[in-house]
Amino acid sequence: MSLNIKYSPEVSDAKTNKRPLVALESTIITHGMPWPDNLAMASRVENTIRDAGVTPATIAVLDGTLHIGLSAEELERLAQAKEVAKLSRADFAACLASGGTGATTVAATMIAAHLAGIEVFATGGIGGVHKGAETSFDISADLRELSETPVTVVAAGAKAILDLPKTLEVLETLGVPVFTYGQHAFPAFWSQTSGLKAPLRADTPGEIAQAHRMRAQLGLPGGQLVANPIPTEAEIPPETLAPIIAQATAEAEAQDITGKDVTPFLLQRIFELTEGRSLEANIALVLNNARLGAQIAQELAISAP
Ligand code: PSU
Ligand code: MN
C-alpha cells in the first residue's frame, strides 16, 4: 500500500511557484480548544498567514489520506469531530495504514511538513517534560522530533503545566537550538517570562532563517525551536495561573489521567478554571506566532537552496 498525500490547491500552487509556506498543526484544533472557538482560531491563523503573503498548510489525516492544507469544509469537519486520534510519531503511520482520521501534534506535523518540503511551522505551545516526569517518564515526543526533523517551529514557549527547567535541559541534551524572540527570558506560554533564560536569542526573522540554513550546512539533522513571547496586552500573570495549574495538575493525578490524555485534560481544566481567559490568551499568541512564522518563511524563501 502506498501513502496517499493530498495537497490543497493553494499549497500545491505555492509549491509549484516556490512561494513561502507555513505548516500548521491540527491537534491544537481537536484537542487544544473547544468548539467553535477552535474553528475560528484555525481560520484566523490561516488568514493571518495569507495576509502576510504566505500560504498556510494545515496538516491532518482524513480517512487515511495525509492532507497538506485543508479546505474550509475539511477544517470545519475536523474542528467538530469528536473521536479524532491525536497523532504523534509513534501512531502516525498506523493511522494512515488503517484509513483512520487523526489530528497531528507538533511531532507529527513536523514529519509531514518535512515530507512536503515545508521548513517552518507555527503553533501555540510544544509538548515537553511533564511535572513529575522523574516518576511518570512523561516526556513529549515533540522534543525528540525537534532533534530529528529539520523544521523551524515557532511556539510561545511551553506551558507552565510542564516542568520548564527540565524541558530546556532535555532540549539541550538533544541538541535542539532554542531561541527566544526579542528578549532573553524564556516565555511561559500565557506569560511573557518564565524566570528562565533561553539559551539563544534572535531579534529578526532573518537571523532565524540563517541559523536554519547553517544547521543544514553542518549536516545536523534536527530543527529549531523559536519561543515567541505572548503579546503584552494578552498576557496572564504567572501569579494568577500558578494556583490554577496546581489544581488542574492535582485533579489529573487524582483521576489517574495518563499518557496522551494528560495535555488535553489540563488544557480543558485550565480553560474552565480561568473562565475562558486562557483561551483568549492562547488565540492571541497563536496569531502572533503565525505572523512570525510567515516572516521566517519569507526569509527562508530568499535563501532557498
Ligand atoms: N500544548 C499546548 N497546546 C496544544 C498542545 C500542547 O499548549 O494543543 C498539543 C500539541 O499538538 C502538542 C501536543 O504537540 O499537545 C503534545 O502532546 P503530548 O504532551 O501528549 O506529547
Ligand atoms: Mn506525554
What would your notes on this structure say?
The chain has helices at 9-16, 27-30, 37-51, 72-80, 89-97, 106-115, 133-136, 141-148, 164-173, 205-217, 238-254, 262-273, 277-302; strands at residues 4-7, 21-24, 55-62, 65-68, 85-87, 102-104, 120-122, 152-155, 178-181, 185-188, 191-197, 200-202, 224-227. The strands form two sheets. Strands 1, 2, 3, 4, 5, 6, 7, 8, 9, 12 and 13 form an eleven-stranded mixed sheet that branches. It has a two-stranded antiparallel ribbon with strand order 10-11. It has one domain (5-302): Indigoidine synthase domain (Indigoidine synthase fold), CATH 3.40.1790.10. Helix 3 (37-51) runs parallel beside helix 13 (277-302) and helix 6 (106-115) packs parallel to helix 8. The chain is α/β, with parallel strands linked by helices. The two termini are 32 Å apart. It contains 13 helices and 13 strands. Bound molecules: pseudouridine-5'-monophosphate (PSU) and manganese (II) ion (MN). Pseudouridine-5'-monophosphate binds next to helix 2, helix 8 and helix 12.
Distance between the termini: 32 Å
- The geometry reads as globular
Q: What is the tally of beta strands?
A: 13
Strand content: 15-25%
Which series of helices and strands comes N to C?
A: EHEHHEEHEHEHEHHEHEEEEHEHHH
What oligomeric assembly is this protein in? single chain
Largest sheet properties:
11 strands, mixed
Low-pLDDT windows of residues = none
Q: How many whole angstroms does the radius of gyration measure?
A: 18 Å
User: CATH superfamily, please?
Assistant: Indigoidine synthase domain
Here the CATH topology equals: Indigoidine synthase fold
* CATH architecture descriptor name: 3-Layer(aba) Sandwich
